[in-house]
Design goal:
single chain; alpha+beta; Translation Initiation Factor IF3; four-stranded mixed sheet; 35% helix; 40% strand; elongated
Length: 106
């Protein structure tokens, strides 16, 4: 299934807009991850533990979105939009929400 942030697919024509589809993934950020992320923030550099958690959440949400679009017999999802938040500030949870439009192609 084609999944894209664009609103069109080059070389393909959208025959039918089926529905808006969405999915989410919530990742718990444990204390150890929090401590290392805080140290990275303090000393500078990238927090690989948080990056991994974010990537995992994004992949899970995108896979779930594909499943929901497949249930509609969609060929693609266009106009993907990701929203990322950490409710409650630092630590606790990481939430990734993705939404797009399920379509059938000609």
């Amino acid at each position: 299934m084609i999944v894209t942030t664009t609103h069109a697919i080059q070389g393909r024509e959208i025959a039918e807009y089926l529905d808006i589809v969405s999915a989410e993934s919530v990742q718990g950020i444990n204390v150890v991850r929090d401590v290392f992320a805080g140290l990275r923030d303090f000393f500078g550099g990238r927090s690989q533990t948080l990056e991994r958690a974010l990537k995992e959440a994004r992949v899970q949400a995108t896979d779930e979105l594909r499943e929901r679009a497949s249930e509609l017999r969609a060929d693609a999802v266009v106009g993907l939009d990701y929203e990322i938040s950490m409710p409650g500030g630092r630590g606790g949870m990481l939430v990734v929400f993705v939404t797009g439009t399920a379509v059938r192609l000609k």
